[in-house]
Specification:
Helices cover about 60% and strands about 0% of the residues. It is mainly alpha-helical and about 250 residues long. The chain has 13 helices and no strands.
């Protein structure tokens, strides 16, 4: 079986949970014919993934490819970008190797990402909220190693076009704003969530957010053998921590 056949047959969809609400998982499926994609990620790969896999598999493949190619478009991929991808699209340990291989192949070049944005936009044209969440996640990956570059902005604008998102959806994704009805809790003090005074410096806020994310990440707790109910609680906590961080970023225009 080819590597691409294994990816299409093995990577499945997304379910509610995590900071974005997207979890890359695994499920049984029909593998693509051996060598159908030649083992390379070419311009026809998105079309073939769309034809040979389910919508959920197309989602999983597309977010991996878009994340990798976005990380590549401003130069060499750095560890912070990979870590951000793993945080936003949580991957079970048993699937990490296959997803990592796809990510590595995709990051060889920043080119040929457009078909994946277009196919994902077509497949989920009836779920703009999910597409907006994916765009917001890509913004977070782009910013993790510094301010947005012109190349990253062009990349994200093309993704927006492929997703068919409007200007206000772009602005919310760019600025880290919650979607209407997305469950933001306006009465929650974001500084209290992070354990900081309101006059904390930008660096102190950022450091506190990173520390809390490390301590509460569900995958970290699961690897330690923590009971499932505590892992679920950690998932909710991570969402709360990220919401607090996003509100502070908006207020401070970080």
């Amino acid at each position: 079986m080819s590597f691409w056949g294994k990816i299409i047959g093995g990577i499945a969809g997304f379910a509610t949970g995590g900071p974005l609400g997207a979890v890359l998982g695994a499920a049984a499926g029909h593998a693509a014919d051996a060598g159908v994609m030649g083992g390379r990620l070419g311009p026809n790969a998105a079309t073939l993934a769309s034809l040979l896999g389910s919508k959920e598999q197309l989602f999983a493949i597309s977010v991996v490819v878009l994340s990798a190619k976005l990380a590549k478009c401003d130069g060499p991929v750095v560890r912070a970008e990979i870590d951000a991808f793993k945080r936003l699209f949580r991957i079970p340990p048993e699937n990490m190797r296959d997803v990592a291989r796809l990510f590595d192949e995709a990051r060889e070049t920043a080119e040929d990402f457009e078909p994946f944005a277009d196919k994902l936009g077509e497949a989920f044209a009836d779920n703009k909220a999910m597409l907006e969440d994916v765009l917001a996640a890509l913004f977070q990956i782009a910013r993790v190693d510094g301010p947005l570059t012109k190349g990253e902005v062009r990349f994200l604008q093309r993704v927006q076009l492929g997703f068919g998102l409007r200007a206000q959806e772009w602005e919310r994704a760019r600025d880290g704003q919650a979607r209407p009805g997305a469950g933001e809790s306006p009465g929650l003090d974001p500084y209290r969530v992070l354990g900081l005074p309101a006059d904390a410096t930008d660096e102190q806020v950022r450091a506190a957010w990173r520390k809390l994310m490390r301590e509460n990440h569900p995958d970290t707790l699961a690897a330690r053998g923590v009971p499932p109910e505590f892992v679920k609680r950690a998932t909710d906590k991570v969402a709360e921590i990220n919401a607090a961080w996003d509100r502070i970023k908006r207020d401070r225009k970080l």
